[in-house]
Amino acid sequence: MNQPSYLTAVREAYDSVAVAYAELLRGELATKPLDRAMLAAFAELVQGPDVGPVADLGCGPGRITAHLRSLGVDAFGIDLSPEMVAVARRSHPELRFEEGSMTALDVEDGTLGGIVAWYSTVHTPPQMLPAVFAEFHRVLAPGGRLLLAFKAGDERRHLDRAYGHDLSLDVYWTSPGKTAESLATAGLTVDARLIREPDEHERPRQGRQAFFLAHKPVVTSAVGGR
Predict the structure, then answer these.
(1) What angle, rounded to 10 degrees, do the helices at 129-139 and 176-185 form?
(2) CA–CA gap between residue 138 and residue 189 (Å, rounded)
């Protein structure tokens, strides 16, 4: 099966910037208390003796995967970019990282206790999001949790250069309302939303940032025809 062209562009872009990207974002989470609060809430929801592992999809250099592990989460990372995976493995050799696409995960149905997609859907054309979220639904166990971080808005920006490298990459700001609709279409229920303005460490043009906590409902069958 041919890979969608946008995935090829994403892989090539992040292969080229992997080392610079990891260095630039090193320690960034320490300046973002609200972001850490959402990660902490997610971490509390996905721990327990019967909860499956958590996949950090689009894990990049592994900083969110490592943060989740520091919070006691059984987390591993998956990324489309081989170079990003290589950086993550060097930076966090005690953790597991794999190559893969969130559009077709090499994960069995209903086995994950949680998914984190930390700005990893921002290069996905909005019309493709329902299919991506359907894949999330497939691999989550009933009751499994999703933490989605994305750029809130309604626009596409094309990057020709980033992190000191020439590249070709589209970035999408998506409406929280439409994103919630896409999640619902995929069978996922939104439990909480945080929308924050750019903080003092971000450029104003980066716009509003959105964080959704969602889950895959547990389906109970009727007993005795009632």
Answers:
(1) 50
(2) 14
Chain segment 135-167, per-residue pLDDT in tens = 999 999 999 999 999 999 999 999 898 777 788
Tokens of 133: 């979220």
Shortest CA distance to 61 belongs to which of 37, 80, 86, 36?
A: 86
Structure confidence by residue, pLDDT tens digits, 30-78: 999 999 999 999 999 999 888 999 999 999 999 999 999 999 999 999 9
Helices (H), the chain: 5-25, 33-45, 63-70, 82-91, 129-139, 176-185
Distance CA 77, CA 54 (A): 9
Give Dmax over CA atoms of the chain in angstroms. Answer: 65
Answering whether pTM is above 0.85, one says yes
What is the C-alpha R_g of the chain?
Answer: 17
For residue 121, what is the DSSP state? Answer: T
Distances in Å between the Cα of 63 and the Cα atoms of 33, 66, 101, 197 are 16, 5, 18, 23
**Does residue 151 contact residue 207 with C-beta atoms inside 8 Å?**
yes
Name which of 22, 24, 144, 11 is nearest 79 in CA terms: 11
